[in-house]
Write a structure and sequence with these properties.
GMP Synthetase, Chain A, domain 3, 652 residues, alpha/beta, 21 helices
Length: 652
Amino acid sequence: MALDIGTLDTFPKLLLHHANVRPTRPAIREKDLGIWQTRTWKEFADEVRALACGLATAGLRRGEHFALVSDNRPRLYAMMYAVQCLGGIPVPLYQDAVATEMAFPIQNAEIRYGFAEDQEQVDKLLEIQPQCPTLTHLIYDDPRGLRHYKQAGLTSYEDLLAKGREALSRDPAFLDGEIAKGSGSDTAAMLFTSGTTATPKGVALTHHALIDRAKVAADLEKLDDSDVVLAYLPPAWVGQFIFSLAQPLVTGYCICCPEAPETVMSDMREIGPSYYFAPPRVLEALLTQVSIRMEDASRVKRWLYKRFMAIANRAGGAILDGRPVSMVDRALYFLGDVFIYGPLRNVLGMSRVRVAYTAGEAIGPDLFRFYRSIGINLKQLYGSTETSVFVCIQPDGQVKADTAGPPVPGVELKFTPERELLIRSPGLFKEYYKNPQATREAKDAEGWFHTGDAGYFDPDGHLKIIDRVKDVGKLADGTLFAPKYLENKLKFFPHIKEAVCFGHGRGMVCAFINMDPDAVGNWAEKRNMPYSGYTDLASRDEVYDLVRGCIEQVNGDIAAEPEIANSQIHRFLILHKELDADDEELTRTRKVRRGFIAEKYLPLVEALYAGKDAVHVEAKVKYEDGRSGMFSADLKIRDAKTFPPAAAKKAA
């Protein structure tokens, strides 16, 4: 049955629609104490209705913002829908953020109400209450550890639900009236930008924008209520928000909440999602796990893996896209699917995946091809918080490693002379909350959103993003310098977790490297190499040689690309610590804050370009308990081999 988004123009109306048309179908599942618990659409809608009435008795008013801090849990989503039933605006916050990071959104939106999953999150909100005097009502889910908390305004989820059920039984018509007042032009949610380059901004998104774009994408991929999705990324990130809140209400599919972040892989294998979304960092981590397991495998298994992966690289993508493949390669690939690719998809929890997306930042072509080569229909999409995610999607049969596909229906794209991408779409945001100047700068009078991304269209009309406009530069000799492109190629290697490249206005490219402690630690143990921790391991000459080999392979690839051949990496160092969001080096969505890092570690950058072979570093770090401390270390600097332009790839 076609969905009429003309009358079902808000999320609460869609929720009631599903409760009526598919009352016994699963809406949301959660793994609790090792057992999957299921709520049907009717059960879930009934809980949302009672919660909404409870919030009404607590005084929540139409148009008010409501903060939520939680992992993916059914009660988190029930609370968000309940807030929307009353015309409120949910504001999900990153659950791994420290307390001080939560203060700005709460102050900015003058939030009175908050929902916290457990004692840890309650403590964070109580800690910032003196700086956020408007925050007077806190609702918690898990009561463990909170028995003796006597703060005013602290209420359990169960108590609120009980009061709501009582109020609903007294006046069942009240809530229906409140839901009917809502319209598609109302703000459905406010999501804060990641703050890669500046203070986070509250992005106000309407019901219409989110529903319209969610439906367009669902129609393109033929999603329906038989699909299953794993909700495992931060709910405050627009990607998780649209896949676990907006699209379920457009399609009726079921979302599943893992038991804990540590159990995501095993939980994924159990539920077998058919629709999957992962940013490149997650796909990189999965590939690293595969690489570690293969290093631990027997010699015969390693040989088989290497041989069949060569076949997969040659034929897997073509078979997935339906392109011609020789009978020999097709037969060999079938054999590989039995012994290698099928078991590998099962280990990754992707045996039933029909459609998989990656987005959030550019993905390395090698990493992208790996997943498609083993039979996973991974596609790139392009979008942002301000566009309700869906701007470009790669259609089946037109998937490329270096593009994001053509624009989806309803979207217009164009470029400025400086190569900046502009977007006009029904999914565009309403405003940056309390920031009219930033709104005018981002969205012009003609309705074009200025993305800040640099790119162009390929001959087939597919969008190709190079980097952020502000990050795309030139070396001293005029060579194009796109740091993200280089960094993504480096991160394909399992031993490299993160990379930060420098070179704009300089005579050569240099890089900071974060090694992957799991992959390199496993590599070191196999060689009986003792080490005391990350810093010790990162300083070893053997590890520098390992990383140098990865960089030189990348340099060999870059040498074959004429436009950027001179942007090979000449010098590098391995950082003494992992880049961390708590140290403001990454955003909460794990994007590198390149400008901040360049400023924070300026002596290291200068040492790379001064020809030194070592540099002393002292840095302030934040610990998990919120304390700060100083770290001191001597870092080695090494050269990497470079190749003449157009050098053969095998030269590396």
